[in-house]
Design goal:
mainly alpha, about 70% helix, 2 strands, about 325 residues
Length: about 325
């Protein structure tokens, strides 16, 4: 007699525990470079999963995640920057801010909230657009954020970038926030809110006829994605200790859209698998790029992979579905 499937909460706890074991093994056995690489791969997972909420569930075509990453990263970096160096590096900061030196968690949260506020302001203006019009508008947001940061050189050091940021984040920090992002996205997708988002994606007119407020739903999805993008930016800058206005730009926006499309629009599992595969592939190909002097080879291969998926399996690896939960060992029949 076959046993019933595990309850979703139990399967989730098992997966989180297995992930924690993997993090402990990576931290204990691998070099610092590989630990940082694993952290960046998990940040890609967080970005891809949050973009599934924004794009995959509601059908938006937003490219604005790098802009929200940049906002979250700069706010958190300025707040945690050593107070003894702020006066020299950022001379235009007000005195009350120049003397502040925050811990990582409150700085990250404030950076994410500022990114969310920016998403609400921008979203109120641009989310009435659709398709490639919205894509162009959010692409312009990346450029606007970069230009603003470049010109606020007394606050951000402009094009010189902000170096010497304290390395406060590690793999455990990234893993914890990635688990939270996946949990939030999973709960949204499998709730009435998620079903309303999917209905809006499939047929907006029918969804409106059922009483769904399309604009508010899209604005909520846009803001949730921006919050986790801000967290991802704050974690990234406290991993690599440096940020410039162009650190998170159009190539990153392209990569994230590729991850969503390859994994399957609306599939959280697909986003996780594709994000890990593409982030590790790009790093693994760097020695080959240098040896062959074919810089940009990884981007070409990713683009070819996208074309292949669109041609052979346009719904992506998982479509909009999630794999079935594992079952415990079958009980023996008497």
């Amino acid at each position: 007699m076959s046993a019933p499937p595990w309850p979703p909460w139990l399967a989730g706890l098992v997966l989180v525990a297995l992930g924690a074991v993997a993090v402990a093994v990576i931290e204990g056995l691998l070099s610092g470079y590989l630990v940082t690489l694993a952290s960046i791969a998990l940040i890609y997972v967080m970005l891809a999963v949050s973009l599934q909420v924004t794009n995959g569930l509601t059908g938006l075509f937003s490219l604005g995640h790098p802009a929200f990453m940049t906002i979250g990263a700069y706010v958190a970096a300025i707040l945690t920057y050593p107070a003894r160096r702020k006066g020299f590096m950022m001379p235009d900061l007000p005195e009350w801010l120049a003397t502040q030196e925050w811990a990582l968690l409150p700085a990250m949260l404030l950076g994410a909230l500022v990114a969310t506020l920016a998403a609400l302001i921008v979203g109120y203006s641009v989310l009435r657009l659709k398709g490639h019009y919205l894509a162009v508008a959010t692409l312009g947001l990346i450029i606007i954020v970069r230009v603003v940061i470049n010109n606020l050189d007394g606050y951000t050091r402009g094009g010189l970038g902000l170096s010497g940021v304290a390395r406060l984040a590690d793999l455990w920090w990234v893993y914890a926030w990635t688990v939270l992002a996946v949990y939030v996205a999973w709960r949204i997708k499998h709730s009435s809110l998620g079903r309303a988002m999917l209905a809006l994606r499939e047929n907006e007119m029918a969804a409106r006829c059922m009483g769904i407020d399309a604009f508010r739903l899209r604005l909520l999805a846009f803001a949730i994605g921006a919050f986790f993008a801000g967290i991802a930016g704050a974690l990234m800058v406290h991993l690599v200790s440096v940020i410039t206005p162009g650190s998170y730009g159009i190539p990153l926006a392209f990569n994230l859209v590729v991850i969503v499309v390859i994994g399957g629009t609306g599939s959280i599992t697909g986003a996780i698998v594709a994000a890990i595969a593409i982030s590790l592939l790009g790093e693994a190909l760097k020695p080959a790029e240098e040896a062959l002097e074919l810089y940009g080879l990884s981007q070409v291969l990713i683009a070819l992979g996208l074309i292949a998926v669109l041609r052979l399996r346009p719904q992506g690896l998982f479509g909009s579905a999630e794999p079935a939960l594992p079952r415990p060992a079958a009980a023996s029949s008497s």
